[in-house]
Fold this sequence. Notes:
Blueprint: H1 3-28, H2 37-54, H3 60-67, H4 70-97, H5 102-113, H6 124-169, H7 175-183, H8 188-212, H9 228-245, H10 253-271, H11 290-302, H12 311-322, H13 326-335
Helix pairs in contact: 1-4, 1-6, 2-4, 4-5, 4-6, 5-6, 6-8, 7-9, 8-10, 9-10, 9-12, 10-13
Amino acid sequence: MSVAVRVVLGVLGTAAVVAAADSAVRSTVLPRASRSRIAASVSDATRAVFRLIVGRSASYERRDRVMALFGPVVLLSLLVSWLLLVLVGFTAIFLAEGVRGGARAAELSGSSAFTLGTAVPRGLTAGVLTYTEAGIGLLLVTLLITFLPSIYAAFSRREVGVNLLRARAGDPPEATTLLKRHWLIDDAEARLGDLWRSWEAWFADVEETHTTFLALPYFRSPQPGESWITAAGVLLDSAALWVAAVEHRPDPSAQLCMRTGFLALRRIATSLGLACDDDPQPTDPISVSRDEWERAVDDLAAAGLPVAPDRDRAWAAWAGWRVNYDLVLLGIARRVEAPVAPWTSDRSPVQDPRPLPPARRRRRRPSGPR
Length: 370
């Protein structure tokens, strides 16, 4: 083997090992949103396989059963991809170091990565390389094992909010149901204020965990009809209806909850590779029609809530809030194959493969009331 070929093999093998280590660190250790190309490719490839297994015409029950395995399979696939890169990379490095034969180099690499000791290296350099590969292999497995408790702790915190919403907003959850049930309780305004503040904290936690742990958005709720993204949509729509269409004492907590919510969804969408508009116009179209909104407001009025008399102004205010999260809400619901819920996944079919529109980078005054 010529010197040039050995140099190329050494460089390519080192690059493969570095890429695996970089992806593992970004995916498990780095405490910030950092999109790893390897992790993104594994996630996309696994999702494509699951979509083929499910089929386009499958019922939601079948999709839910199959997609419940998606998040865990992505995590295991990540570990497999990292180990494969290390195995292939060190096989190339062993060949560059002078080990004769691809089979012998692969055997030495596999024995080192899994610390089996079935192949004995010859020479000081080969011995150092085997110990190095063994350390990297153990590190990758350890990182994933220690990574799992953090993921499931974040999952548990997320699902507490989703479960609590069932009693407040129904099943499937609806924004009007949430407002009507709170209105029937004494001191509804104070209770809703507490609700907005608690969900502001929920959105902040979900943003931090779902952009750091890229498999977490795909982990499905224990109950088939529940989903973190439909819960988020109901809370945002409820807060927007409360601010725009219901007369009450001034309370900035609903606006703060909405702002925290749509910023969280935008950042999660970006981490999932979905395009979003960071600065939409208040007059941009939204997926909810005026007729649907009118029926919702009529429902609130029938329940005794003091709806705003100027419907045109209320609609403009509500649409100005909804436009901030409309596309990302539907896009994430489509990506995670959420169960059907009004104003969210009922207009975001899982069979629709169309990507979100490209992000626009216009500098304008933010839309919606501030």
